[in-house]
Amino acid sequence: MQKRTIPGTSLALTTLGFGGAPIGNLYREVSDADAIGAVQAAWEHGIRYFDTAPHYGLGLSERRIGEALRGAPRGDYVLSTKVGRLLRPNPSPGGRDTEGFDVDDGLVRVRDYSRDGVLRSIEESLARLGTDRIDIVYIHDPDDYWAEALDGAVPALSQLRDEGVIGAYGAGMNQSEMLHRFVTATDVDVVMLAGRYTLLEQGAREDLLPACAERGVGVVNVGVFNSGLLSKDRPAPGATYNYAPAPAELLERANLLADICERHGTSLPAAALAFSFREPLVTSVVVGMRTAAQAERNTALGAQEVPQSLWDELEERGLIDTVPGPAATESPSREGAAR
Q1: Catalytic residue status for 169
Q2: Residue 168 covered by a domain
Q3: Could you tell me the CA-to-CA distances from 263 to 182, 251, 252 in Å, in that order?
Q4: Partners of residue 170 on adjacent β-strands
Q5: Bridge pairing between strands 12-14 and 3-5
Q6: Which pairing describes strands 240-241 and 218-222: parallel, antiparallel, or unpaired?
Q7: What pLDDT is stored for residue 230 in this prediction?
Q8: Residue 198 sits in which domain range?
Q9: What are the strands, taking DSSP E only, across 274-320?
Q10: Whole-angstrom Cα distance, residue 229 to residue 239?
Q11: Residue 333 located in a structural domain
C-alpha cells in the first residue's frame, strides 16, 4: 500500500488507515475475536496506520488495538490516539454508556484540555495500548474548549513533539473552521478532518485546505462516507448523514452521484474513497472497520481504479471542486509558527 509523509516529519502513513471507533462497540457490540480479527485483516492487507481514542468505547478500542498489534514490530506501523477526554470511575454505574458505544458505564469521560490532563491522558493511553510510544496525538473535539486547548494542550503537545516523545500532533474535529484556527494560530503538524471534505461536500476547500497548503500541515481525512450516506452503491433507506437521518436534498444528491458513478463503471463508495486521494494535501484516509470482512472490503475499495472521466463529469457539473495543481501546494512554509 502506498504511503504519504506528514510534511515536516518522518511519519509516513499508509494512504488507507484503520479507524478504531467501531471496535470500541460504536452503536453495537463487537466480539473480541471480531475486533482483533479486523485489525489483523487490515494488517494483512497492507494497512500500517491505526487510529483510536479513549472516547471510543471508554478505552475498549485502545485495549483491543493494543492487543491485536502486540508482537508486531513497533517501527512498522504508525499509531495515533487523542486527548481531551480523561476516563474516570463512574460514581453511579449500573447501566450502559450514553455516548453511542455499547459498553458498561463503569467509567465516565471528563473533558480536560489542560497540560496536566494531556500528560495523564497520554500516560493512560500508553498503558491501555501496551506500547512505549504514540506517534501522533490529536486534540479531540475541542469545539467548546478553544481557550483551554490553546493554553494547555497545544504547548504541552508541542513540547512533547520537540523533545521526541511523540512524532507529531494536531487536532481532530467534525468542522473545518476551528481546525483552520489551529492551523493558522499554532504549530500543529496535521489535522484530522471528519466529514467536511467528501464526494458529497467540500466546505474545507474554502478555508482549511488552503491554510494547510500554505503552512505545510498534513490532512488525515475521515468520515468520507458521510456517516453512511455514501457507503453503499445506492443510498440505503434510512441512510444517515452526520449520524442523523439524511435530509431529502442530500439523499437526492447522493443518488445522483450514484447514477453518474454507475455510468462510468464504478461505485459510489469506491468514488467516495478515491475522491480524497485526488487531493495532494491528504496524507491518509481513515475508515472505520468492525470486522475482518469490512477491512477486506475497504482495502479492496481503496485499490479500485476510478476513471478520470468520472471526475471530469463531476467537475463539469459542479458536483465536486477542482483540485489545484502542484503549484498550489508546493513549497509550504510555517513562517510565523511557534516551532
Answers
A1: no
A2: yes
A3: 41, 19, 17
A4: 138, 190
A5: antiparallel
A6: unpaired
A7: 95
A8: 3-327
A9: 282-288
A10: 5
A11: no
Dist. CA 100–CA 6, nearest whole Å: 31
List Cβ neighbours of 78 (8 Å cut-off, separation of 6 or more): 11, 12, 13, 48, 49, 50, 135, 136, 167
| Confidence at residue 237, expressed as pLDDT on a 0 to 100 scale | 81
For residue 153 the three cell numbers come to 494542550
- Say how many domains are in the chain: 1
Residue 107 main-chain phi, psi, to 5 deg: -120, 160
Q: Are the C-beta atoms of 168 and 161 separated by less than 8 Å?
A: yes
Select the more confidently predicted residue: 325 or 140. 140
Nine-digit cell string for 310: 468520472
The rounded distance, in Å, linking the Cα atoms of 58 and 182 is 26
Mean pLDDT score, 109-116: 98
Three-class DSSP category at 179: helix
Q: Is 338 inside a domain boundary?
A: no
The three cell numbers of residue 104 are 458498561
DSSP letter for 153, please. I
Q: What confidence tens digit (pLDDT) does each residue in 256-278 have?
A: 999 999 999 999 999 999 999 99
Q: How far apart are CA 157 and CA 78, in angstroms?
A: 17
Provide the mean pLDDT of the chain. Answer: 94
Q: What's the rounded Cα separation, in Å, for the pair 94 and 243?
A: 26
CA-only gyration radius of the chain, Å: 19
Check 49, 56, 138, 197 and give the catalytic one.
Answer: 56
- State the residue for C-alpha cell 484503520: 18
Instruction: Count the neighbouring beta carbons within 10 Å of the beta carbon of residue 100.
Output: 14
